[in-house]
Design brief:
Shape: globular
Strand content: 15-25%
CATH superfamily of the largest domain: Dehydroquinate synthase-like - alpha domain
Radius of gyration: 20 Å
């Protein structure tokens, strides 16, 4: 088992990475908290696979444990679903020592984190991410949110988990589409911070697609380490943490304009990264080799790289709803070379339209 620590003072916590960890979540939590009760929140399909096993680990510690199911899909990450969970927590008489467990992918993690941040002004929660995307990205760093019809993650809070337990074995049951989408975020970490990781992905993509545990352990730990250091420098995304949004500016617009139904998050980010690299080249920030290498790696990993047919003016308008946008100035994370990026405070619409 690998143990990484995020140093945020009294909000610090550990990320545990390894095989067979899900059943031991109760054992790990015992070292951190003494809950009054446990409420596991998950999707029906994840509950069928892992719910009983994870719950038994908490029950073994003597904690009353309940499971609440949330419908699958990004469409469940909304205020209506949040209200249903609040109702359930109130029915159970959950108090401030109750602990929520986010068992699932990014939708569950974001939703449960938001509930934890707001129920009784804040109760503890832990992440047990079951998708590659959530293990390397959404479970780490404390971003919690629900979506609004006008934009993704528009209603939320920065609220850190008390523990992250990432079990590599859960990736075996992940649909190939979801698994590959998670790889997009790992590619992102290589682009923004670690050329060596990007080289490793280029050299080992076949093994990675075949779920080689040695490769997986390396790329997940490396990705989490990169994110941990970024979050430690800028927990609330005042500036530097924006680098984690490479590819997300147009990616979020694609998700929103296709009503979160055509592309899953990692696929939209894949397309968004290619657009951001092409924009970087168009602005003279990088050589043509950078978007070429990025596009080739993403294609080798089975990810989409081409912009869907969307109205360009609608895309531009969507960018103005991006959380980085201030005073009607569209910010972009641009790449200068693999492993190095810069934050551009204002990009003209005409420049973005060139790559759309």
């Amino acid at each position: 088992m690998q143990r990484l620590s995020i140093d945020l003072g009294d909000r610090s916590y550990d990320i545990l990475i390894g095989s067979g960890l899900r059943a031991r979540a109760g054992e790990f939590l015992k070292d951190v908290l003494n809950p009054s009760r446990i409420v596991i929140i998950t999707h029906p399909s994840i509950n069928d696979l892992y719910g009983k096993e994870v719950a038994e680990g908490f029950i073994a510690q003597g904690w009353t444990t309940d499971i609440f199911e949330v419908p699958e899909g990004e469409s469940s990450k909304n205020l209506g679903q949040a209200e249903k969970i609040y109702d359930h927590l109130l029915e159970l008489n959950c108090d401030r020592k109750s602990v929520l467990v986010a068992l699932g992918g990014g939708v569950i993690g974001d939703l449960v984190g938001f509930i934890a941040a707001t129920y009784q002004r804040g109760i503890p929660f832990i992440q047990v991410p079951t998708t590659l995307l959530s293990q390397v990205d959404s479970s780490v760093g404390g971003k919690t949110a629900v979506n609004h019809p006008k934009g993704k993650n528009m209603i939320g809070a920065f609220y850190q988990p008390r523990l992250v337990v990432a079990d590599l074995e859960t990736l075996k049951t992940l649909p190939q589409k979801e698994y590959r989408a998670g790889l997009a975020e790992i590619v992102k970490y290589g682009v923004i911070s670690d050329a060596g990781l990007f080289d490793y992905l280029e050299a080992h993509y076949r093994k990675i697609l075949n779920l080689d545990y040695e490769c997986l352990s390396h790329i997940i730990e490396t990705s989490c380490s990169i994110k941990a250091r970024v979050v430690e420098k800028d927990e609330r995304e005042s500036h530097y943490r924006m680098i984690l949004n490479f590819g997300h500016t147009i990616g979020h617009a694609i998700e929103s304009l296709t009503k979160y139904s055509r592309f899953i998050h990692g696929e939209a980010v894949s397309i968004g990264m290619v657009c951001a690299a092409l924009l970087s080249h168009s602005l003279g920030k990088c050589s043509d080799e950078t978007p070429r290498r990025l596009k080739a790696l993403l294609k080798n990993l089975g990810l989409p790289v081409d912009m869907p047919e969307l109205d360009s003016s609608a895309v531009i308008e969507s960018l103005y709803h991006d959380k980085k946008t201030m005073d009607r100035k569209i910010k972009f994370i641009l790449v200068t070379e693999i492993g190095s990026i810069e934050i551009a405070d204002q990009i003209m619409e005409t420049e973005i339209l060139k790559v759309l």
